[in-house]
Structure formats: structure tokens, C-alpha cells
Amino acid sequence: MSSSPSAVSCCARFITDPWAAAKVLVPSVAIEVVLHNKVWQKCSLRHLTLYLALINTYWFASTINLSFLESPLIMHIPTMDEKQKTECGRYRFNWLNKFEIMLGVLSLDLFCVWRERILDNNGFVDRCLYQAVLVPALITGAQAAYLLPKLNERAQLVSKGAATTDDLYKDKVFPKAHRAYIGFETAKVVGLAVAGLRFGRMLTI
């Protein structure tokens, strides 16, 4: 079963749309409001802990796979030219960001409910866990609002044949934005690993 050209074009336009992040964020928040009131408030503390462990572990695994394993491999496929590699990278990272926006909203809301339950039972949430949960969501927001639009703008020059990949790295903006993106991805993975391990460990107690 193959997609029609118009459907593929529509999907591609949405992924790289500058407003796509907002278009994903708004319905994600709306759905999360319903889940917050109808589902999470009725869950036990152990179930909330389990969900947080699963979300952070899944998010960690998908980021490691897409950002650090598959993407570098794709960039070295000899049968793809520079334009194809650039387009592939652009669509992959934009798609991943939209997916992470949904995960970020879900993770933050679950953590807020979980934290409230902990405090209601005279518990304590340390700063390390706060940061491990908040950092990935904040990084995703920064990538969506600033880094990806900057990288997309430069990458489109390669797609249109107006520049080469070598020209991108001679540009003042692209190398800095690219290095910042990699650095943020690394910080995100560390935060997700810490959060996943911490919540997972709580399930063994």
C-alpha cells in the first residue's frame, strides 16, 4: 500500500511547518487536561510511578536510536547524495521533535500528579529528580522554538540547490545551531536516563 503524492506532500509540509510545534502542543495539552481529570487522579501512586518509568525509558530509547544510532548511519549511506541526506535528516528530526512535544506534555503532567501524591504523604522530591524530568521537556521546547527553525532554514538551501553541505558549515549560524542541538540531545538523554532509572528503582522498593 503506497501513499499518494498529495498525502506525502501534506505530511512533509506539516512536519516542517514553523507552526507545527504549536499545532501539536495545543491538542496535546487539551487531551492531557482530560487525562489529568479522568485518569491520572484516579491512579494509585505505584501506577503513576510505573507510567513515569515507562515514558522516560521509552523516550530515552527512541532518542538514542533516532538521534545517535540511525541518523549517523544514514549520513554515511553511499547511495544517497548530499541533498537526500539533508532532507532525510531534516524530516527525521522535525518528526522526532513533534513526537517529543507530546511525550513532554504527558511526562510533565504525570510528574505533577505524582509529586502532589508524594507531598500529600509527607514525602520529599529531591532537586535531581526535578531536573531530570524538567530538562528534557524544556530542551524539546527550545529545539522546537529556536534551533529547528534555524536548522530548517539553512537545510532548505541545500534542498533548493542554492547551497551545498560544505557551504552550511561555513555559515556562521548553522555550525553553532548544529552543535547546540547535539549538546541539547545529549543533555536530554542524560535527564531521561536518570529519571527512568530513579522511577524504575522506586518500583523495586
Protein described:
The chain has helices spanning 5-16, 20-38, 45-74, 82-120, 127-159, 165-170, 173-202. It is mainly alpha-helical and 205 residues long. It has one domain.
Provide the helix percentage: over 70%
Overall pLDDT, averaged? 90
Helical region count?
A: 7
Q: Give the uncertain stretches in residue-range form.
A: 1-7
Strand content: under 5%
Give a short account of the largest sheet.
none
Globally, the shape reads elongated
The topology string of helices and strands comes to HHHHHHH
Query: What is Rg?
Result: 19 Å
Total discrete domains: 1
The tally of strands reads 0
The helix/strand class is mainly alpha
Q: End-to-end span in angstroms?
A: 48 Å
Summarize the structure.
The protein has one domain. Helices cover 82% and strands 0% of the residues. The protein contains seven helices and no strands.
Show the helix and strand layout.
Blueprint: H1 5-16, H2 20-38, H3 45-74, H4 82-120, H5 127-159, H6 165-170, H7 173-202
Helix pairs in contact: 2-4, 3-4, 3-7, 4-5, 5-7
Task: Provide the descriptors you would attach to this structure in a database record.
single chain; 205 residues; mainly alpha
